Amino acid sequence: MQKTHLPRIVVLISGKGSNLQSFIDAVQMRVIEGEIVAVISNNPGVLGLERAEKAGIPTQVINHRDFADRESFDAALAEVVESHRPNLVLLAGFMRILTPAFVEQFEGRMMNIHPSLLPNYPGLHTHQRALDAGDSIAGATVHFVTHELDGGPAIIRAEVPILADDDAATLAERVFEQEHLIYPLAVRWFCQGRLALINNRACMFGRPLPPTGHPFSTVARER
Ligand code: NHR
Ligand code: GAR
Prior knowledge:
By secondary structure, this protein is α/β, with parallel strands linked by helices. It folds into two domains: 1-106, 3-Layer(aba) Sandwich (Rossmann fold), CATH 3.40.50; 113-223, Formyl transferase, N-terminal domain (Rossmann fold). It is 31% helix and 24% strand. It has helices at residues 18-28, 47-54, 70-83, 100-105, 126-132, 168-191, and strands at 8-13, 35-41, 59-61, 88-91, 110-114, 137-144, 154-161, 195-198, 201-204, 207-208, 214-216. The strands form two sheets. It has an eight-stranded mixed beta sheet with strand order 3-2-1-4-5-6-7-11, covered by helices on one side. The protein has a three-stranded antiparallel beta sheet with strand order 8-9-10. Helix 1 (18-28) runs parallel beside helix 6 (168-191). It starts with 7 loop residues before the first strand and ends in a 7-residue tail after the last strand. The model has no long low-confidence stretch (mean pLDDT 96). Glycinamide ribonucleotide binds next to helix 1, strand 5 and helix 6.
């Protein structure tokens, strides 16, 4: 196997790393034809770092608390990320808003998963906000990261029902299951060269995807 020619993937995390685990598993199963070359966390001691170490992936902590401001944290982060020569940078539960300079440096090769049906509920506490609004569906969206927070072109999204007795935790759990299916799929497409950001649109085989991204469903279509 020509390991050195696989797309190089850097994953940025802040916490438990369940999306990271879905990439690790997908690489192992050859669903993602790429190599995770580094996992970087802004928080020390998180479960995601343990998951990476267990998989033999080099880890690094760049603690934002050690920096005077966002610009200097992002500059240090960018230097470390770039040192790994990534073809793709994945935000996986990464909780620090990135400066325009950082975003620009990695534009077209950086994705995020956001736990809402974008453009609804950018930012934090998405599940509670969907519940408070009385929504009947929730979900998650994978998107390219651009200067607009959670506003970059959507790649793929999955919907889940909101049930009468849901709280933020039970809803999050249902959304997680979908996150772990759609994010590796988006990464697979990118590594295959099928998916790209072109003129600020997410494109498959050069053709723009729908504005809300590829609709993902695990429910078999009725005949
Ligand atoms: N950066 C840019 N420029 N664009 C995006 O689309 C980004 C981003 C950085 C992270 C993830 C995003 C999400 O999916 C993401 C997308 C953190 C916050 C936030 O408010 C908001 C959105 C996202 C991630 N963070 C606080 C901050 O001051 C800190 C919160 C905390 O530490 O718990 O950075 O939801
Ligand atoms: C996921 O639900 C992800 O969509 C969300 O945080 C969780 C991270 O879980 N991302 C954000 O809210 C980004 N602000 P993980 O660490 O187990 O992958």
